[in-house]
């Protein structure tokens, strides 16, 4: 069976590393603006009418957007089972927080408009605010912790054990990463608000969005500097990219500045952090001149650049271990089997283009400015 | 090493969140098809009332769907958070159908659900109808892939254990895909969902008829629901997945436990209608049986035997001993990959490796297990007999009641007598919870009946949990308990409000002036 697979195990692992990035970026680009708008809701929209405008910008598409996260989780499970096992159980309480946010968000959309009572609606506005802010912040904190290394180990049956606790996640560097993520997501949400609404909501979004874009740029640069002088991980033994997925067959050392060494070896990868910074600045510029499409292009570039930077810095690591560095998970020893990666690649190559097509069609159908009038016309509006 | 309190709490959390999630999914499956049918009638006949029906049931669908999405995310993440060794051990096989579910089904359903609600005035009639059907198809494909994943837990085909990576790996995806247990489960489960949707529609319509409100919509909805419900209720029982139970060892154990059949009966075995199973004495204290019935249902033959619990336990002992040989060989192979003799022993016995893990409850080095420990581990393969026996009987009882119920209303509908007898309408109203009860019991039979295995014959449940702390689980369990309870109350209140308000009496889309928004477009019946 394996002999019939036209791509090598090494190629498939690399492709699935890229696809993991594609899914995470897809999530941040689509669901990201839902989260950003949720985080901006209390600040950008003051009246019920304004809040309904923002909510109905997201209304027709949030369900589809959220599937990027579901598929991201499923793809990690299918393509990188050890990563799924270790990270989800290790970040237990952080995951619970994200889950609570993701439980409250869908019901908030649906339930809010069903009763005309200000207290009721304020309650769900809070849920939307928390549901937007918490996942954006925690995801960044999680990435920060991955860069620092996670206190996990594997016994010789590959059973994970975890020796950290929730508050241990909140280190200064991880919080910095959390704020990068939050400001990036907020800027993205602001750009969409500007593009899809008019009047006071767009103006307020412009104010917050410009600040968020600049904050994202500054903190991202600061994070880069921190990494230069901070710790990273290096594989010190030869790893066979075609070998079995057993993370205990290599040696790893903790080295200062290791995360930037890859950029020296592969200078073209510098394009990712450059894109991240340029995107933030372009977003700021776009919002300043009220060029909302430019702003959205900027925030999208920023998301693409910043997430790619995290992935490229870690390469070939997926999840370094601070407790037992040799047990760190890498692209070469934490994947599914050759056959599973191949099968999943086929499925993805068939369905991802179809998904992109119909998602684009839905966005096209729902294009245009959302106003009180367009909402009034639809009895199903939120 | 393994903390059994953590295991039990993790099981409780998974069971509670799964059963809660499964309150919403069946209604989504059923209502989505019923809405698609109604909208099809609208597009074909051009009669406005069918669109109003689609809109109204769509509002109920939306509230329910949001809860399904909210609680579904939890399910996907929980394998990783609470069952990390499971995720490592079988992720190579089990992760794939979950990921494909997202790519092929849930994306479709979730992307078009937004257009279903927001696209009425932006799409042509045909395009909107297509959107509604895509939502329904997406929902059903979702069920297919989830049940392929679940079917593999019940009957782990197409895979083998890899000593180098210490996990199960796929060797034949087609076998996983066309797993007979998964196929049987799929038909059985989605049919049960259709019955739930139909019953929801019947009960709400009956409520309107009793109140003398919205008769036009109520009668038509009831007619559609009665025929759809009858077909689905027949499909649930006739294509019930009992036929799937004869395929594998533990499925046989589950069947024997469901039937409280301690000893193998001569074929064809009788069906026990009533019994008081005693798990201590391993006998039934009192029983009423129908001769031949079980053998016919379960094996579809007159000569094939249905094995009883105690003979299966004896067989488990053999498998545990083989498993110990596999376990010892595995250690040898891992210490020295060139040890060909050990490799041969392992290859001959790896199918029973999981059985040796049952001994981990009693000692860490399973190769030193005593006969008494093997005996105990073998009896661990027996699920909770009284719970399975009664859950199954209540489920089947409800199943037959629902066939009769829908047949009666189908007959009334064919004779244009729907709504004639008030007593019947009250029955329809109060039958509302029955499909949910049957479905939850069905889940219990399938998953609680799978114990002690999380993957049948491969991985014991207690061996699969994450090494979390008591504090972790106390926090997560209480969080879910509080949030889910509050949301359940709100969901019911909102559903009741929407139903009380009822459908709009005229088409809101055309007649409502911009700005005067109302969630279900009600002003017309506010004066009733």
Write up this protein.
By secondary structure, chain A is mainly alpha-helical. Chain A has one domain (about 20-375). In chain A, about 70% of the residues lie in helices and about 5% in strands. In chain A, the strands form three sheets. A two-stranded antiparallel ribbon of chain A has the order 1-2. A two-stranded antiparallel sheet of chain A has the order 3-4. In chain A, strand 1 (about 150-155) and strand 2 (about 160) form a beta hairpin. Chain B is about 70% helix and about 5% strand. Chain B has 18 helices and six strands. Chain B has helices at about 5-45, 50-80, 85-120, 125-155, 175, 180-210, 215-240, 250-260, 295-300, 310-335, 340-350, 355, 370-380, 385-415, 420-430, 435-450, 470-500, 510, and strands at about 160, 165-170, 270-280, 285-290, 455, 460. In chain B, helix 4 (about 125-155) crosses helix 6. Classes of the chains: A mainly alpha (about 375), B mainly alpha (about 525).
On the 0-100 scale, what is the average pLDDT of chain B? 88
Q: Which sequence of SSEs, written as H and E, runs from N to C of chain A? A: HHHHHHEEHHEEHHHEEHH
Strand tally of chain A is 6
Structural class estimated from helices and strands of chain A: mainly alpha
Specify the overall morphology of chain B.
globular
**Main beta sheet of chain B, described?**
2 strands, antiparallel
């Amino acid at each position: 069976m394996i002999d019939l697979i036209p791509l090598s195990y090494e190629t498939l692992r690399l492709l699935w590393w890229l696809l993991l990035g594609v899914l995470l970026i897809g999530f941040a680009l689509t669901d990201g603006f839902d989260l950003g708008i949720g985080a901006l809701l209390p600040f950008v929209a003051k009246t019920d009418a304004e809040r309904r405008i923002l909510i109905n910008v997201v209304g027709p598409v949030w369900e589809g957007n959220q599937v990027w996260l579901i598929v991201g989780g499923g793809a990690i499970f299918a393509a990188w089972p050890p990563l799924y096992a270790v990270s989800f159980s290790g970040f237990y309480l952080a995951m619970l927080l994200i889950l609570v946010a993701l439980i409250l968000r869908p019901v908030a959309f649906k339930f809010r408009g069903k009763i005309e009572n200000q207290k009721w609606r304020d309650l769900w506005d809070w849920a939307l605010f928390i549901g937007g802010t918490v996942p954006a912040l925690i995801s960044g904190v999680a990435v920060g912790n991955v860069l620092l290394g996670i206190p996990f180990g594997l016994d010789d049956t590959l059973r994970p054990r975890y020796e950290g606790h929730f508050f241990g996640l909140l280190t200064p560097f991880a919080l910095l990463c959390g704020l990068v993520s939050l400001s990036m997501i907020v800027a993205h949400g602001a750009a969409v608000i500007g593009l899809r609404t008019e009047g006071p909501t767009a103006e307020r979004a412009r104010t917050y969005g410009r600040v968020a874009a600049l904050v994202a740029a500054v903190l991202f640069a600061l994070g880069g500097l921190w990494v230069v002088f901070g710790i990273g991980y290096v594989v010190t033994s030869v790893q066979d990219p075609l070998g079995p997925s057993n993370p205990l067959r290599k040696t790893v050392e903790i080295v200062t500045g290791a995360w930037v060494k890859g950029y020296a070896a592969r200078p073209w990868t510098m394009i990712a952090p450059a894109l991240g910074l340029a995107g933030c600045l372009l977003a700021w510029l776009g919002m300043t001149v009220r060029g909302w499409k430019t702003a959205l292009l900027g925030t999208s570039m920023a998301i693409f650049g910043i997430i790619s930077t995290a992935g490229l810095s870690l390469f070939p690591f997926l999840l370094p271990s601070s407790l037992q560095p040799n047990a760190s998970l890498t692209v070469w020893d934490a994947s599914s089997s050759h056959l599973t990666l191949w099968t999943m690649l086929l499925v993805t190559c068939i369905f991802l283009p179809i998904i992109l097509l119909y998602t684009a069609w839905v966005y096209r159908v729902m294009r245009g400015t959302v106003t009180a009038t367009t909402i009034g016309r639809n009895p199903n509006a939120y | 090493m393994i903390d059994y309190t953590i295991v039990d709490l993790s099981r409780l959390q998974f069971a509670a969140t799964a059963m809660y999630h499964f309150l919403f999914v069946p209604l989504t499956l059923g209502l989505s098809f019923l809405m698609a049918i109604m909208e099809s009638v609208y597009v074909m006949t051009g009669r406005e009332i069918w669109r109003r029906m689609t809109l109204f049931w769509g509002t109920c669908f939306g509230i329910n769907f949001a809860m399904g999405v909210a609680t579904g995310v939890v399910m996907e993440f929980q394998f990783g958070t609470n069952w990390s060794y499971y995720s490592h051990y079988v992720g190579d096989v089990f992760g794939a159908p979950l990921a494909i579910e997202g790519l092929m089904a849930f994306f479709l359903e979730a992307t078009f659900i937004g257009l279903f609600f927001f696209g009425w005035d932006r799409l042509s009639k045909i395009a909107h109808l297509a959107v509604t059907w895509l939502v329904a198809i997406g929902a059903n494909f979702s069920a297919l892939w989830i049940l392929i994943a679940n079917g593999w837990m019940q009957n782990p085909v197409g895979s083998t254990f890899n000593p180098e990576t210490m996990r199960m790996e796929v060797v034949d995806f087609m076998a996983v895909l066309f797993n007979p247990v998964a196929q049987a489960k799929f038909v059985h489960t989605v049919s049960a969902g259709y019955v739930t949707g139909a019953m929801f529609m019947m009960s709400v319509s009956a409520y309107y008829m009793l109140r003398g409100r919205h008769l036009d919509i109520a009668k038509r909805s009831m007619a559609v629901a009665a025929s759809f419900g009858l077909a689905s209720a027949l499909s649930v029982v006739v294509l019930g997945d009992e036929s799937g139970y004869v395929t594998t060892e533990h499925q046989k154990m589950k069947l024997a436990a469901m039937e409280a059949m301690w000893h193998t009966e001569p074929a064809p075995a009788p069906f026990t209608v009533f019994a008081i199973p005693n798990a201590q004495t391993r006998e039934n204290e009192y029983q009423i049986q129908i001769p031949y019935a079980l053998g016919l249902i379960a094996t579809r033959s007159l000569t094939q035997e249905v094995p009883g619990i105690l003979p299966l336990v004896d067989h488990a002992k053999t498998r545990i001993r083989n498993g110990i040989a596999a376990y010892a060989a595995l250690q040898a192979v891992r210490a020295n990959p060139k040890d060909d003799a050990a490799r041969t022993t392992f290859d001959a016995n790896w199918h029973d490796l999981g059985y040796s893990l049952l001994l981990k409850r009693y000692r860490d080095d399973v190769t030193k297990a005593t006969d008494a420990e093997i005996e105990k581990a073998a009896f661990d393969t027996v699920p909770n007999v009284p719970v399975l026996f009664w859950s199954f009987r209540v489920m089947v009882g409800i199943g037959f009641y629902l066939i009769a119920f829908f047949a009666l209303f189908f007959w009334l509908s064919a004779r244009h007598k729907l709504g004639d007898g008030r007593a019947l309408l009250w029955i329809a109203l109060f039958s509302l919870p029955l499909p949910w009860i049957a479905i939850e019991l069905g889940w219990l039979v399938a998953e609680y009946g799978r114990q002690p295995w999380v993957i049948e014959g491969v991985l014991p449940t207690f061996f699969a949990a994450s090494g979390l702390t008591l504090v972790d689980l106390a926090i997560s369990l209480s969080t879910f308990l509080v949030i889910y309870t509050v949301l359940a109350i709100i969901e019911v209140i909102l559903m009741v409000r929407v139903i009380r308000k009822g459908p709009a009496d005229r088409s809101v889309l055309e007649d409502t002036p911009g700005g005067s928004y109302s969630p279900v477009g009600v002003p017309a019946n506010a004066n009733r």
